[in-house]
Design brief:
Elements (H helix, E strand, L loop, with lengths): L2 H21 L5 H15 L4 H28 L1 H13 L4 H13 L4 H19 L3 H18 L4 H10 L3 H35 L7 H10 L1
Length: about 220
């Protein structure tokens, strides 16, 4: 078996084990994910100590970010941010304002840091608007993704600049010219279309799935 095929099979088995640990053995999802990630890294040839070092960094980021997000919610900071976003563009344009806010927040932060910081805010804003979380969460993810995936000094764009000997200033300009419209289409525009589909599902008299019943309860 080639090394590439071996890694694919290892990843496939790791996903199955992760689902079993969470669904059958009732492990905490975070602990199960960390354990499977470490096992997959070691299986693919990464030094165990190096894998632990990487996971410890990720764990600290996620753990501290989650705590900061909880503090934002409990202290009222999330409510203040939600009110500012709603006041900035009105309820109709909140998905657009949250996209640009997530894009600006994502410029100096890693994706996972911005994500754990903004997730509580997305729930608070959606609750205040009486709207599906999807209508706020998708623009938020789009803004973070564009900032992290296309704009230096994030790792991937910076590596591309160094590899192709590109001009960093032009790369940032092209990221804004191409990335922002792409993020707007995949974020607020797509979220509006998806929210319409959710509204249609929520208006049905007898939702067939648990997801449908949850949507009806959220709308109420």
């Amino acid at each position: 078996m080639s090394p590439e095929a071996f890694r694919l099979w290892a990843a496939f088995i790791g996903i199955i084990l992760l689902v079993l640990l969470v669904a059958r053995l009732k492990w905490h999802p975070f602990l199960a994910l960390m354990f499977i990630s470490w096992g997959l890294a070691v299986t693919c040839g990464i030094d165990p100590g190096q894998a632990i070092a990487v996971l410890s960094f990720v764990g600290i980021v996620i753990g501290l970010g989650t705590m900061i997000g909880g503090l934002l919610v409990s202290s009222g900071g999330a409510d203040a941010f939600a009110n500012a976003m709603i006041a900035a563009g009105g309820r109709k344009y909140v998905p657009w304002t949250i996209f640009f806010a997530a894009f600006l927040i994502g410029l100096p932060l890693f994706f996972e840091v911005g994500f754990v910081l903004l997730v509580p805010l997305a729930f608070v804003i959606a609750k205040k608007m009486d709207a599906p979380v999807l209508s706020v969460g998708l623009p938020m993810l789009a803004g973070l993704s564009i900032a992290h995936g296309m704009t230096p000094p994030h790792p991937a764009p910076t590596l591309a600049v160094a590899t192709f000997h590109a001009d960093a200033g032009r790369t940032i300009l092209y990221a804004l010219v191409i990335g922002v419209p792409a993020g707007l289409i995949s974020g607020p525009v797509f979220a509006a279309a998806a929210a319409n589909s959710l509204d249609f599902a929520a208006q049905s008299e007898k939702p067939r799935s648990k997801v449908g019943r949850t949507l009806v309860q959220q709308r109420k």
